[in-house]
Amino acid sequence: MASTVNFTGSVDRDLLKRAKVIAAKSDTSVNALFNAELRYLVETFEASESTSNQNFKVLLDFSLGRLADDQAMRALGIDSEEDLFLLMAQAHLPMPRLADATTQGMVEQLKSLPTI
């Protein structure tokens, strides 16, 4: 039987509130949701490593913002963003966010546009 340990982490307040709603609707706990998702992530990563398949690592790196979409597509041998996003969904990984600097640059560009 697997033993459990307690650990301390932090999570965005709004995210926790939303997770509590999902847990309540699913008749489970946030802890159970977290454990299921973390187990899925670890087991999928380990399974891909054991078969020397680096596709999951590429998708994880893309999800974490470590790879740009064109780099991920090149590494996976695909030529369509749609295929990349389908693979992300199949891998049960969240879509990446833009880097904060990129987002801020876009905001500055929008602010510099002439107003009517």
Taking all Cα atoms into account, the compactness measure Rg is 18 Å
Low-confidence stretches: none
**Number of helices in the DSSP assignment:** 6
- The mean pLDDT is 87
Largest sheet: none
Q: What is the rounded distance between the termini?
A: 67 Å
How much strand? under 5%
The structure class reads mainly alpha
The backbone outline, from C-alpha atoms, is: flat
| Count of discrete structural domains | 1
Helix percentage range: 55-70%
Number of strands: 0
H/E element sequence:
HHHHHH
Write up this protein.
The protein is mainly α. The protein is 64% helix and 0% strand. It has six helices and no strands. It is flat, with a radius of gyration of 18 Å.
